[in-house]
């Protein structure tokens, strides 16, 4: 039983918030601004680095005309330490191995810039599971624009139904606009209650994911 599965990265496969928050706070330190709590920065994660920096600028009442400069500064800090405190969620390595053994084709569709995404995947020994990686700067669009998801699927030789796995409102909207079944990891960076996020199935333990994929594929096969 196979499927072609695209994964979001931050908040879905890896807990990268500590390193993202550290990069943002190093940028704020550079401009003599007080640091923000990790919980505050968590609210800004999901739509890519430029959006995160824009939200930080607004929150700290900094001049928005410095957005490009501060985005580059944050990216520089992040690239220097993008995997220092980042870890895969429990069960991720095992689940990805099982999905590959099932014959699934796996890829990444994230709003994180492609370079840092690839670096983190290599650093955490996850890169070998994936046939493609699309980041927030791979194309001219980011999620929730479904074109990023379409392009990631089209870049691989598909096997079975297409599924998207993510953790956030942005991922849910992307899947909905792409008309692709959405599996929602409930322990990531979502901001709203689980019941308010459209999804096909949800899971809280990544060890459950291979069985959930089997269920989703069976349901899709019956509907076909």
How would you sum up this structure, described in words?
By secondary structure, this protein is an alpha/beta fold. The chain has 2 domains: 4-15 and 88-223, Rossmann fold, CATH 3.40.50.1000; 17-80, Putative phosphatase, domain 2 (DNA polymerase, domain 1, Orthogonal Bundle). The chain contains 9 helices and 8 strands. It has a 6-stranded parallel β-sheet, with helices on both faces. Strands 2-3 form a two-stranded antiparallel sheet. Helix 3 (49-60) packs across helix 4 (67-80) and helix 7 (146-154) crosses helix 8. The protein is elongated, with a radius of gyration of 17 Å. The two termini are 15 Å apart.
Structurally, the number of domains stands at 2
Report the portion of residues in β strands: 5-15%
Strand order in space, largest sheet: 5-4-1-6-7-8
What's the N-to-C terminus distance?
15 Å
User: What class do helices, strands and sheet pairing give?
Assistant: alpha/beta
The low-confidence runs, each spanning 5 or more residues with pLDDT under 50, are: none
What is the level-2 CATH architecture name of the largest domain?
3-Layer(aba) Sandwich
Name the CATH superfamily classification of the largest domain. HAD superfamily/HAD-like
Task: Write the CATH fold name of the largest domain.
Answer: Rossmann fold
Query: Mean pLDDT, nearest integer?
Result: 95
**CA-atom Rg in angstroms:** 17 Å
Shape: elongated
DSSP E strands, number: 8
- Describe the main β-sheet briefly: 6 strands, parallel
């Amino acid at each position: 039983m196979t499927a072609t599965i695209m994964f979001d990265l931050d908040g879905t496969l890896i807990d990268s918030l500590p390193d993202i928050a550290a990069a943002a706070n190093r940028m704020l330190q550079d401009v003599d601004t007080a640091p923000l709590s990790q919980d505050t920065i968590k609210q800004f994660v999901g739509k890519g680095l430029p959006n995160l920096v824009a939200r930080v600028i607004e929150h700290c009442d900094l001049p928005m005309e410095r957005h490009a400069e501060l985005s580059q500064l944050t990216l520089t800090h992040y690239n220097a330490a993008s995997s220092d405190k980042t870890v895969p969620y429990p069960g991720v390595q095992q689940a990805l191995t099982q999905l590959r053994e099932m014959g699934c084709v796996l890829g990444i569709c994230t709003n994180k810039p492609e370079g840092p995404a690839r670096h983190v995947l290599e650093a955490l020994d996850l890169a070998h599971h994936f046939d493609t990686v699309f980041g927030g700067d791979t194309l001219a669009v980011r999620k929730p624009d479904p074109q990023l998801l379409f392009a990631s699927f089209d870049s691989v030789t598909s096997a079975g139904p297409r599924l998207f796995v993510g953790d956030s409102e942005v991922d849910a909207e992307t899947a909905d606009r792409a008309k692709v079944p959405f599996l929602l990891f409930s322990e990531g960076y979502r901001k709203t209650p689980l019941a308010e996020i459209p999804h096909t199935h949800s899971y809280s333990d990544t060890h459950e994911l291979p069985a959930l994929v089997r269920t989703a594929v069976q349901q899709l096969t019956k509907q076909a």
